[in-house]
Amino acid sequence: AESFDEECDYLFKAVLIGDSGVGKSNLLSRFAKDEFRLDSKPTIGVEFAYRNIKVADKLIKAQIWDTAGQERFRAITSSYYRGALGALLVYDITRRATFENVKKWVRELRQFGSADMVVILVGNKSDLSHSREVNEEEGKSLAEAEGLCFMETSALENKNVQESFLQMITKIHEITS
Ligand code: GDP
Ligand code: MG
After folding, report:
1. Measured from the CA of 28, which atom of ligand 1 is nearest?
2. Ligand index nearest the alpha carbon of residue 90
3. Which atom of ligand 1 has the smallest separation from the CA of 71?
4. Which of 9, 79, 148, 173 is within CB 3.0–4.6 Å of 143 for a Cys-Cys bond?
5. What is the model's pTM?
6. pLDDT digits (tens, 9 = 90+) for 46-77
């Protein structure tokens, strides 16, 4: 089993961004808890969670930061982005406004984040197809226009959650190694 203190080859910082209520904290707890051990504390109320992942024979410790509700108060500062190599930019497929705000989040990323940051656009809550307000094609084409990767997820059904984090981490590894 992997433990918190295990020697790792790389430490990657990544951040979760997107409007309040889109499912960032649930995506993180799915990712951190499901197949690997969540280190010591629950994600609620903490600023980040770790997970150790093997990519191409290297052990990567991914440190994922969560906004813990600060997005409501626009209190996300440059320190949140400092040193971050990747981001999951999350919107809610059942709330069009959260998709329309993606462009604002991209601007903030470009302002505070490093230029070569790996960004995955994530349309979450794909299980709620009956109340969908943003179709998958729209997500895809926005991602293409902004030069981002794209995935729809369901934190509830644990669909594509591991895949979206792993895609980000694998791409970071490709860039940095
Ligand atoms: P955050 O503010 O972005 O961190 O969002 P949360 O993770 O706190 O989730 C906000 C609400 O959306 C909660 O009521 C969650 O239960 C719900 N939620 C999160 N992800 C999903 C999902 O994939 N499907 C559904 N149906 N609900 C979700
Ligand atoms: Mg949250």
Report:
1. 7
2. 1
3. 2
4. 148
5. 0.89
6. 467 888 888 888 889 999 998 866 666 555 67
Specify which residues 84 forms β-bridges with.
13
Size of the chain in residues: 177
Measured in angstroms, how far is the CA atom of residue 23 from the centroid of ligand 2?
7
For ligand 1, atom 24, name the residue with the nearest CA.
Answer: 125
Residue environment code for 89-106, b if the CB has 16+ CB neighbours within 10 A, otherwise e: bbbbbbbeebbebbeebb
**8 Å CB contact between 39 and 4:** yes
CA distance to 29, 71, 122, 153, per residue, from 77 (Å): 23, 10, 22, 27
Question: What's the CA-to-centroid distance between 56 and ligand 2, angstroms?
Answer: 31
As a whole number of Å, the CA-based R_g of the chain is: 15
d(CA 19, CA 82): 20
